[in-house]
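Entry: Insertion element IS402-like domain-containing protein
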Amino acid sequence: MGRGDLTDAEWERLRPFLPVSNRRCGRWRDHRQVIDGILHRVRTGVHWRDLPERFGPWKTVYERHRLWSADGTWERLLQRVQAEADAAGDIDWDVSVDSTIVRAHQHAAGAGADPPPALDSKGAGPGEHQGETPWQSLVARLAEVVREARASAARAAASPPRSI
């Protein structure tokens, strides 16, 4: 298991909600391996063709992500996992917004033309999700995949059609 892969607890919580193969097009590659590849790609931003071999053929990972994005599987997975986590009491639905999260546009504050200096990254090592329950970590990771799928769909809808 590599860094960023689904933990055993996350996998056990996610597995009941995954679609099953209809067996008409052959057997699907292991869902866990493919989902780990998708999570790796979303987390690192690597090109599909540059996915490490441990996730299987890059095209399999890409096609599963594309298919599940198009048919709403990612959205349904996120909703089901959120519902289970909420039922278990692992989601805090309180929202707190302050100026450190929502900033005014630079023109609203009279900011200078120079961008602010970049913050030093302390790195997100193995303790990245310490204190989170498996539900919270899984919901956060699925939400990231859904955001990426929505952004990809929006980019595709905004791009001009290709002519042959």
